[in-house]
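User: Just a sanity check before I run the rest of the batch. Below are the C-alpha cells for the first item. I only need the designed sequence back.
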C-alpha cells in the first residue's frame, strides 16, 4: 500500500510540475525571444545611417573596454589570490575578506569619486598647483579620468573580486604535493606559481574573466559618465533619443552576439585541456618575513584601498558634510521603492529557483533544460533585457487594448509596460541564474535517499519540500536572496529604461545627480547603498571559509 501511495504521489507530481517549470522558464526567456524576433523581422532606416557613421566605433570601443577590463581584473585579482592562499603575512586574515568588498560598491559611484578627486578642480590637482606654483593645466600633465583608460581602471577594480574569489578557491584546493615536488626540483616560489599553480588555475581565471566581461558589457553608468560610447550606450541612446525599437533590438542582438562569442571562446579555449589536481595534502601557507611580508600586505591593501576604502571614505565624508542638504522626503520615497523592488525580485527569483531545481531533482534531464533556459538572462546586459521586456509588455498591452476596444470597453491603458512589474520582470530575468546556481549547489549536497525515506513514510512532494528540502536549503536560499537583493539594488541600466514615471530608485536617483554634478544631494543615499551591500559580501566570505574548512 505504501509503495502504491508513493508511486501515485510521484505520478501526480510528474504531471503537475512540468507545466509550472516550463512556464517559468519561458517567461524568463520571453524578452530574449521577443528581442530576436523584432530584430530580424523589421528594418529600420536609421540602421544604415548608424552603420555608415558610428556603429564600428561602438564595436571597437566595446572590444577595447572588454579586453582592458579583463586584463586589469586579472592583474588585480590573481596576485592577490596567490598571496592570500599561499603565504602568511601581516593582516592576511582581514585582507582575505576585505578583497571582496569592492563588490558592494557600484561602479558608477567609484567612477564619480575618482573623477571628483582627480579632476582639474579636484583636491589633488589643486594641492599640486599650490605646491609647485603651476598656474593652469598647460603647465603640467595629469591623468584624465574621463577616458577609456579611466573606465578600464574603475571597472577592473570593482569587478576584480570575481577573479579573486574564484582563483582563490582554486588555489586553496590545489595539492600541496605538486608544490612539494616542484620545490624539490629546485623551483623557486615564483616558478612554482607560473609553472604549477597558474596553469591549474586557468579554468577559474577563464570563468572569472567571463563574468567580468559580461558585467563590463552590461555596464552603462560608468562608461556613459566617462563618455566612452560602446554598444550598451548605443542601445540606450537609440531607444531614448530616436525611439527606434527595431534598431535598438538590432543593436541589442549585436551585443548579445558579443556575449555569446565571449562565452564560446572561453569554452573552446579549454576544450581539449584537462586540469587534474588530486588534493592529497592540504595547501600549507608559507610564512613571509621582513620586506616580503610587508610587500604582500601592501599589495592586497592597495587593491582594497583603491576599490573600496577610498571611495567609501569619500562617500562618508560627503554624506556628513552635506547631511543637511539631503532631500529627506525624496530619500525616503526612493528608499522604500528600492527596497520594495529588490525584495520582490529577490523573493520571486528564489521561489522560481526552488521550483526549477525541485523539478530538476525529480526529472534531471528535462529539469536541467528548464534551469538552463531560465539562466540565460544572466548573460544578457540589463539594457538588452530591458528592450526585450519592453517588447513583451507593450505587445501584451496592445493585445489587451485591442480586445477591450473590440468588446466595447474602450482603452484600458498600459497595464504592464511602464510599471514596476516590467522592471521587476527584467531584474528577475537577469538575476534568476544566481538563485538557480545557489539552490543547485545546495540540492547537490542532499542525498536522494532523504527523498526516498520521506516518500516511503507517506510524505507528499509538498511535505517533502517543506519539511526536508527547505530546512536543508536554508543557507543556500538565504545566500541567493541576499545576492539577488544586492544586484537588484545596484542595477542601473535596466532601471533607467523601465522605471515608471515619477518613480526613482536609489541607483537612478544617484546617477541622475551624479551626471548633473550635484552629487552632494545623493551622497547619503549612495552611502546607504554601499552599507546595504555589505552583508551579502560578508556572507560570501563566510561561504568561502566554510568551503575551505570542508576540504580534507
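Assistant: Here's the designed sequence for the first item:
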Amino acid at each position: 500500500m505504501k509503495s502504491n501511495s508513493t508511486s501515485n504521489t510521484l505520478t501526480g507530481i510528474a504531471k503537475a510540475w512540468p507545466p509550472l517549470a516550463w512556464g517559468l522558464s519561458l517567461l524568463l526567456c520571453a524578452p530574449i525571444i521577443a528581442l530576436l524576433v523584432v530584430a530580424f523581422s523589421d528594418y529600420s532606416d536609421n540602421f544604415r545611417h548608424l552603420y555608415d557613421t558610428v556603429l564600428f566605433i561602438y564595436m571597437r570601443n566595446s572590444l577595447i573596454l572588454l579586453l582592458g577590463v579583463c586584463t586589469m581584473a586579472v592583474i588585480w585579482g590573481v596576485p592577490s589570490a596567490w598571496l592570500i592562499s599561499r603565504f602568511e603575512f601581516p593582516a592576511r586574515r582581514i585582507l582575505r575578506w576585505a578583497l571582496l568588498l569592492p563588490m558592494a560598491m557600484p561602479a558608477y559611484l567609484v567612477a564619480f569619486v575618482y573623477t571628483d578627486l582627480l579632476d582639474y578642480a579636484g583636491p589633488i590637482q589643486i594641492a599640486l598647483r599650490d605646491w609647485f606654483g603651476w598656474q593652469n593645466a598647460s603647465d603640467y600633465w595629469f591623468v584624465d579620468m574621463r577616458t577609456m583608460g579611466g573606465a578600464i581602471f574603475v571597472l577592473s577594480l570593482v569587478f576584480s573580486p570575481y577573479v579573486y574569489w574564484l582563483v582563490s578557491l582554486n588555489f586553496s584546493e590545489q595539492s600541496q604535493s605538486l608544490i612539494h615536488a616542484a620545490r624539490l626540483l629546485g623551483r623557486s616560489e615564483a616558478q612554482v606559481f607560473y609553472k604549477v599553480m597558474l596553469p591549474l588555475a586557468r579554468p577559474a581565471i577563464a570563468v572569472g574573466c567571463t563574468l567580468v566581461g559580461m558585467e563590463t558589457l552590461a555596464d552603462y553608468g560608468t562608461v556613459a559618465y566617462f563618455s566612452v560610447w560602446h554598444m550598451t550606450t548605443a542601445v540606450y541612446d537609440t531607444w531614448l533619443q530616436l525611439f527606434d525599437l527595431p534598431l535598438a533590438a538590432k543593436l541589442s542582438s549585436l551585443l548579445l552576439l558579443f556575449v555569446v562569442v565571449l562565452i564560446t571562446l572561453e569554452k573552446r579555449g579549454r576544450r581539449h585541456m584537462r586540469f587534474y589536481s588530486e588534493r592529497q595534502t592540504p595547501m600549507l601557507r608559507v610564512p613571509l618575513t621582513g620586506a616580503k611580508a610587508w610587500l604582500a600586505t601592501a599589495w592586497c591593501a592597495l587593491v582594497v584601498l583603491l576599490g573600496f576604502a577610498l571611495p567609501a571614505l569619500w562617500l562618508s565624508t560627503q554624506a556628513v558634510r552635506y547631511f543637511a542638504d539631503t532631500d529627506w522626503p525624496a530619500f525616503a520615497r526612493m528608499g522604500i521603492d528600492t527596497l520594495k523592488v529588490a525584495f520582490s525580485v529577490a523573493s520571486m527569483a528564489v521561489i522560481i529557483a526552488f521550483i526549477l531545481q525541485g523539478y530538476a531533482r525529480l526529472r534531471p534531464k528535462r529539469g536541467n533544460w528548464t534551469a538552463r533556459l531560465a539562466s540565460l538572462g544572466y548573460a544578457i546586459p540589463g539594457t538588452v533585457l530591458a528592450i526585450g521586456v519592453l517588447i513583451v509588455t507593450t505587445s501584451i498591452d496592445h493585445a489587451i487594448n485591442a480586445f477591450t476596444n473590440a468588446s466595447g470597453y474602450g482603452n484600458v491603458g498600459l497595464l504592464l509596460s511602464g510599471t514596476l512589474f516590467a522592471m521587476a520582470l527584467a531584474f528577475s530575468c537577469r538575476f534568476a541564474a544566481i538563485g538557480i546556481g545557489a539552490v543547485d549547489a545546495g540540492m547537490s549536497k542532499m542525498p536522494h535517499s532523504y527523498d526516498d525515506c520521506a516518500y516511503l513514510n507517506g510524505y507528499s512532494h509538498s511535505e517533502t519540500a517543506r519539511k526536508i528540502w527547505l530546512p536543508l536549503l536554508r543557507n543556500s536560499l538565504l545566500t541567493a536572496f541576499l545576492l539577488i537583493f544586492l544586484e537588484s539594488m545596484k542595477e542601473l541600466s535596466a532601471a533607467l529604461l523601465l522605471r515608471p514615471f515619477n518613480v526613482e530608485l536609489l541607483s537612478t536617483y544617484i546617477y541622475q545627480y551624479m551626471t548633473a554634478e550635484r552629487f552632494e544631494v545623493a551622497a547619503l543615499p549612495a552611502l546607504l547603498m554601499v552599507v546595504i551591500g555589505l552583508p551579502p559580501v560578508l556572507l560570501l566570505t563566510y561561504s568561502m571559509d566554510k568551503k575551505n574548512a570542508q576540504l580534507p
